[in-house]
Amino acid sequence: MAKYENTLIGEFEEVVTHLENDIVISGISMNLVDESNYTIGSTKIAVRVYDKYFMRNGNRASLSLTVVGDKSTIFISAIGAGGGSLFKFTLGAEDDMVEIVEKSVEQMK
Asked: Is the pLDDT at 56 greater than 70, yes or no?
């Protein structure tokens, strides 16, 4: 499992759209599995789950993305899982998934 978390200042919908675009264009086999959106008061929450097929190890890996925004403060959590073969050797698939989000966030800062 790989994890990346960060906080930034921005506009919630723009941040979510930027992340979604960067994730989807990161690879032909990247697939949005499902999404959830929720607002309570001034707090907005977006959850996205992606999966991707990795030819190098013949497995799929998943990326769970959670974005929480309250006014202009935005918290982002990305967790990569799966992608392992026998004995959980992932060959970096989980890290690759999380790195997409990390690079996208750094572009927005």
From this structure: no
